[in-house]
Amino acid sequence: MKLTLNQKKALDIERHIALTAGAGSGKTAVLVSRYIEILVKKNLRVGQVVAITFTEKAAAELRQRILREIENRISDGRVIERLMEIKTGMISAQISTIHAFCSKILREHPLVAEIDIGFRVINGIEQRISVRKAVAVSYTNLTLPTNREV
Hints:
- By secondary structure, the protein is mainly alpha-helical.
- It contains seven helices and two strands; from the N terminus they run H-H-E-H-H-E-H-H-H.
- It has a two-stranded parallel sheet with strand order 1-2.
- The termini are far apart.
């Protein structure tokens, strides 16, 4: 794969990044390479690296493509022992949506977060209703300046 200048920058593992780009731009390929390179070059455990996506589908695809790339590298004879360790550790990989990642942190620290450990992430119609209620409450509590205050 021929990389663009921005893709090369994204592969600099000495930097933390937020990768955003349009569909078909090679984001997942870059993230797969970056993820594996961080684990190999920094000698980190899989559970020490976080990859966050917006959708569960994207998270599942990223996990699958990382595993496929690990298999390809093992077949090519590259860093076999380390890649086998990474492959085994992928069961504990923190590749998820932002909601799932935040939920994990909150469940690990409910007292600090001052939340009920039995909380759940809402979605669908329940989410839309809650957002509408929050906006309505915010709007009714909004105080607009009078002509004299402007």
